[in-house]
Design a protein that fits this description.
- The protein has 175 residues and is mostly helical.
- It has helices at 6-19, 32-61, 68-97, 100-109, 120-129, 135-142, 167-173; strands at 146-147, 160-161.
- It has a two-stranded antiparallel ribbon.
- Helix 2 runs antiparallel to helix 3 (68-97) and helix 4 (100-109) crosses helix 5 (120-129).
- The radius of gyration is 22 Å and the shape is extended.
């Protein structure tokens, strides 16, 4: 197809859907509990980023006396974000505990080194709401599969992480 417009796009999507009908699954909205947990996790991520901005501000002032008047407010903001993170974390844990399957999956995921309180619920929800047919399919979705680069002058190049897939989930795995 040499052109691109809405009519051509719709025909191409219909053709692709018809050809891949056996692999397609019906989209279903997330259960309200999962949605609530994910929104709280997003809020906690925002709180953590904002708190780091405030900490960087304090560090940048480096004890300069003329900043002392403003720094007391910055310190207060950091304390506020510390408390808010703890409250959100507790609320997430309480919500996860209300669903036996989610709770069991989160506990199991946390036994994996490097998977903690913030990452386990996201992965558990993802695994419970998507129909991954293999571990490789899940790894590809998350974006942690190796990518070979062995052509031309780069025959000896090491494999790297592909970075295809969800950057948000991959960031949680590497934070």
């Amino acid at each position: 197809v040499n052109s691109k417009n809405d009519e051509i796009d719709s025909h191409m999507l219909a053709k692709m859907g018809k050809e891949n009908a056996d692999d397609l699954t019906e989209w279903k909205p997330l259960p309200p509990l999962y949605e609530k947990v994910l929104f709280l996790i997003r809020r906690m991520d925002q709180v953590v980023r904002t708190r780091q901005v405030e900490r960087n501000r304090l560090e940048g002032h480096g004890g300069i006396k003329s900043f002392a008047a403003a720094d007391k407010y910055t310190k207060s903001a950091v304390e506020f974000y510390d408390k808010q993170e703890a409250q959100i974390s507790e609320e997430i844990a309480n919500l996860v505990a209300t669903d036996a399957r989610l709770d069991a999956d989160v506990k199991l995921l946390k036994t994996i080194p490097g998977i903690g309180e913030k990452t386990a619920p996201v992965l558990a929800i993802l695994l419970n709401t998507r129909n991954f047919k293999s571990a490789g399919q899940f790894a590809k979705f998350v974006g942690v599969i190796p990518k070979d680069n062995k052509s031309g002058s780069s025959v000896d190049s090491p494999s790297r992480m592909s970075k295809a897939g969800s950057s948000a989930i991959r960031a949680k795995l590497y934070s």
